[in-house]
Amino acid sequence: MSEINSLPLILWKCKTDKINTNSKNIGSTLINSYENNLFSRWSLENNLRILLLMLLVAIALFKLTFTYPALAAETSNGAKIFSANCSSCHIGGGNILVAEKTLTKEALSKYLANYNTDSILAIIHQVQNGKNAMPPFKNKLTSEEILDVAAYVFQQAEQGW
Ligand code: HEC
């Protein structure tokens, strides 16, 4: 090969070498950014995990702090409903019309149908529909109020009024 002819070849070689180094550079940049990406994805997932954990702890704390006051509010609401609607006949858990049919645990398990299998449901049923001299309350109280007052009666019966 003559020298003149080999010049383009040298030029061509230089060019491809440059391309090669360039593509090597591009390749390593690609690998680098892929690794960075992997790393940031890894830390993103970890951060999400930590966030999730914090959220769960927060929910648990929230539940612990607010469950008990919420229950207390429900029964105190039940107490209010009881004194407004029931105590005229059932003052202190008694019964001024039918002496033996009180709201004590013993009387309820003796006289109230299904009290022994599903206490609160049995009270709800009685309050909704009434019985004999006891008027029904389903048009007077909301179902939530009936639930509240039934829970209150059950709690008081368990505690012995
Ligand atoms: C007008 C009086 C009167 C009012 C007001 C009244 N009750 Fe009664 N209640 C009765 C009578 C009478 C009975 C007995 C019914 C029967 O079985 O003959 C009774 C029975 C019950 C029983 C079953 C007791 C047992 O030993 O069998 C429950 C529970 C009860 N009432 C809850 C309530 C609740 C809760 C309220 C208020 C939302 C209420 N009552 C309002 C008169 C009343």
Please give a structural write-up.
With 161 residues, the chain is mainly α. It has one domain (3-159): Cytochrome Bc1 Complex, Chain D, domain 2 (Orthogonal Bundle). It is 76% helix and 0% strand. It has five helices and no strands. Helix 1 (3-85) crosses helix 5 (143-159) and helix 4 (119-129) crosses helix 5 (143-159). 16% of the residues are buried. Heme C binds next to helix 2, helix 3, helix 4 and helix 5.
Structure at a glance:
The protein has five helices and no strands. With 161 residues, the protein is mainly α.
* Total count of domains: 1
- In the CATH hierarchy, the architecture is Orthogonal Bundle
Radius of gyration: 39 Å
What characterizes the major β-sheet? none
Provide a count of the helices: 5
Question: What oligomeric arrangement do these chains adopt?
Answer: single chain
Assess the beta-strand content as a share of residues: under 5%
pLDDT averaged residue by residue = 83
What compounds are bound to the protein? Answer: heme C
CATH superfamily: Cytochrome c-like domain
SSE arrangement, N to C: HHHHH
